[in-house]
Amino acid sequence: MSYLPKPRLHHPTLPKNALGYTRRDYEGAISTLCAGCGHDSISAAIIQACWELSIEPHRVAKLSGIGCSSKTPDYFLGASHGFNSVHGRMPSVLTGANLANRDLIYLGISGDGDSASIGLGQFAHIMRRGVNMTYIVENNGVYGLTKGQFSATSDKGSKAKKGAVNTDEAIDLVALAMQLGATFVARGFSGDKAQLVPLIKAALLHRGAAFIDCISPCVAFNNHEGSTKSYDFVREHNEAVNRLDVILGRQPITAEYEPGSVIEVTQHDGSVLRLRKIAPDYDPTDRVAAMNYLQERKAAGEIVTGLLYVDPDPTDLHAKLGTVEVPLNRLGDAELCPGSAALARINAALR
Amino acid sequence: MRALTATNDFVVKFANVNGSGSASANTLFAKSILRMGIPIASRNIFPSNIQGLPTWFEVRVSGEGHLGRRGGVDLMVAMNPQTWDRDVAEIEPGGYLLYDSTKPLPKSKFRDDVNVIGVPLTEMCNAAYTDARQRQLMKNIMYVGALSALLQIEPAVVEALLGEQFKGKERLAQPNRDAFHMGRDWALKNLECPIGLRLSRLDAVGERIFVDGNTAAALGALYGGATVCAWYPITPSTSLAEAFERYCRRLRHDPETGRKRYAIVQAEDELAAIGVVVGAAWNGARAFTATSGPGISLMQEFVGLAYFAEIPAVIFDVQRAGPSTGMPTRTQQADVLACAYASHGDTKHILLFPEDPHECFAMGADAFDLADRFQTPVFVMLDLDIGMNDWLCEPFRWDDARRMDRGKVMTAEELEAGRTFGRYLDVDGDGIPYRTYPGTHPSKGSFFTRGTSRDRFARYTEHGPAYVDNMQRLLRKFETAKAYVPRPVERRAAQPTRDGVIYYGSTSAPMREALAALERDGVHLDALRVRAFPFHDEVMDFIARHDRVFVVEQNRDAQLRTLLTIEGCVDPARLVPILHYDGTPITARFIRAAIADKASALNVVPLRKAVP
């Protein structure tokens, strides 16, 4: 972490996006996390993704629960409204916020304790409701703020810093999200920004429940020999199934690809997800096959990353409910109050 | 044998089996009396069960217009063999027992001091119908027919009601009409009609409506501009959310697209329900949840967040008997303290106490203005008695000139003009800061909402003075609310008195009746109906003006009395608790007896005059 606030001055040659914003315009307050924390890399990837997509920062609502990961929304997109809510309950708050104004972009930031332990129920229900959002779990397999207890995503057999070995099964949030109906599921690694940034971009463009499980080593409490969430272990066991490029509009294809080595998925907003295959025969639009593949590779001890599943034509909670296009928070008295004449009819029916 | 005689002043109780289709017949009976211009008060007494357990429906006919439960039964319609003995035992001496006489019962099953009226309902149904379900359902309509003869209900009124109920479904209307007349004709032919209890047309209902509090509160939320409802099913609040959905379907669709101007989420639990409400309200929508005691317990953490982060939320608490699962289908006013001080840390919340469905509607709408104005949770404290029973009350009223009060919300234009925005900055001394909705302005007005301590500009801090500054402002805000919440209603005694009584919520109707009776007994009391917390200054003035104030409540621990004692620094000895908490609605008889008893016990009469 850095103790000195960066100067507000921008270098005149800093690149600008379509809105004329530099990356600095997407930054937030100074992080108070430990130096080298994976979470800060994820914040940087979020900043990069939003900048590259030319998203207006104030049109993003950032919501989180409680924990190290949940502190991070303060450290990016300073011009966005943020909500650091209660432990494990960010999904319900995000659902309500989304219902109130369908026009904003919703970014939910959570951790493994927040989503897999105390908040597993809410995690499950927001996925099955298909709330239009990007939900990132910064997964380090450990409780950081309370100094090193196992979390529910700690792998069985993983060793804690003080030597205890985890004997419980790990909760696999990716498998859960797929089973529960999330329409975009990915796994990234905070140490691989080149892979993570396009995943976040694709998720932000996705118009349904998008979930990214991002392995994010805890340098203070879970980065030692014997941990399955350390930088070294994840680098060694990381098996990417694909490499993603997010293409907006009609950008020309500049790279040459081997025939059959690329899958293109056009999302509802027109963005194209170009996936360079690494695992042969992996089709991220086939949910059942993807689930099978993930279970197989997990059994082989691999950590599968990449865009694991995407439904190019998702639905979301507003579509299911059939709400009006105008955000509910903009409806006024005329649209909401039926008035005294309607009430007189109601009274008459109650006599 | 003595036979009770009364016109337009008696209690009829129906003992039925849950799920036997008796509810609609009983409602028909109740409504037919209302249509004759005679006030009634009806109550369902039902178990936590869907089918098979006993259920009762009680109708108090009161030409004088008493709407509380009276206590005692003058005519029992005993249709449930399971509860026969206790039902028969409950009848007042000289009262009446109507039963299905198809199967003969031994003489020991009856009472000598009760007038027995046998109607062979099953026999008649079996003769008239072949379908088993129809035999069951029509039995209910048949006893309404018999009662119409025995009590002098005008048959034309019943016919009209059946016509309305089955409008457009003639196939269903006719068999019901037939069954009604079958019962009526049999009674006219075989029984002495009418009995001593009689109905006689009045004009005492006026423009009043007959509706349950949950429906009324739901309509209040609709008129108040609520767009997001998140809830988890729990008795006795479920019908509130369901009524909201029902009326929204009729009144809240975009006329052009047919799409909804509302969103209802049946959440996975109460924690999620209040979470959705907090998220929606943070984002500028009017949002509410409906729940009962156990839900209130589960929502505590979020309520504290909403209080501290200053987010509006409306919570309808339809109270039932606790603690824990308690008696889920019985009424109480036992969540007063749990709501007033909900959540850990120092918190205080606005509570509203509607007395009947009319006020459920009014306060249901007002709650959203208050929540927005004060950026804080507001609890509307119904109870099962108000929420799930139909009450005769003043019609709902709405002023078309009324506009939603969204409170202090800073707009993009104001931000652009350079107005200072501090999320927790008190600019005018009322303790209420400005807020902005997310997405308002590209570079101004954003802030980070959190349950942790922060300064006036929403920046995280654990600095003691900044924390105290904020907590003091929250107190100031609560103080400001006193003048905005509904004022108490005072009713002066016929003659000057040093004694007073305070009451609230569903105690109101029996209290009015008890006050009149006490007056006849020579006990004079000034009465104050508390309608909200924080207490208006008039509440404390009322206590100060009296030597002794009875506080009538439907809970064991005198919760409102505790709140009055704490918040008003009142000497507890001056507040005399009158408590009823067996799960049944409090009655005028109970209040009258309890106050008379305490009044005499507390009146210390000196044996000898003190020597001057």
Provide structural commentary.
The complex is a heterodimer of chains A (351) and B (612). Helices cover 30% and strands 19% of the residues of chain A. Chain A is α/β, with parallel strands linked by helices and 351 residues long. Chain A has a single domain (23-330), classed as Thiamin diphosphate (ThDP)-binding fold, Pyr/PP domains (Rossmann fold). In chain A, a hairpin with a 5-residue loop joins strand 5 and strand 6. With 612 residues, chain B is of the alpha/beta class. Chain B folds into four domains: 6-198, 3-Layer(aba) Sandwich (Pyruvate-ferredoxin Oxidoreductase, domain 3), CATH 3.40.920; 211-393, Rossmann fold, CATH 3.40.50.970; 408-486, no CATH class; 489-602, Rossmann fold, CATH 3.40.50.920. Chain B is built from 19 helices and 24 strands. In chain B, strands 10, 11, 12, 13, 14, 15, 16 and 22 form an eight-stranded mixed sheet that branches. In chain B, strand 13 (313-321) and strand 14 form a beta hairpin. In chain B, helix 3 (121-128) packs across helix 4 (132-151) and helix 16 packs across helix 19 (588-602). The mean pLDDT of chain B is 95. The interface between A and B is large, with 59 and 73 residues.
Q: Which regions of chain A are unreliable across 5 or more consecutive residues at pLDDT < 50?
A: none
Helix content of chain B: 25-40%
CATH topology of chain A: the name is Rossmann fold
Q: What is the CATH homology-level superfamily of chain A?
A: Thiamin diphosphate (ThDP)-binding fold, Pyr/PP domains
CATH architecture of the largest domain in chain B: 3-Layer(aba) Sandwich
Total helices of chain A: the number is: 12
Average pLDDT reading of chain B: 95
Question: Please, how many domains of chain B?
Answer: 4
Order of helices and strands of chain A: HEHEHEHHEEEHEHEHEEEEHEHHH
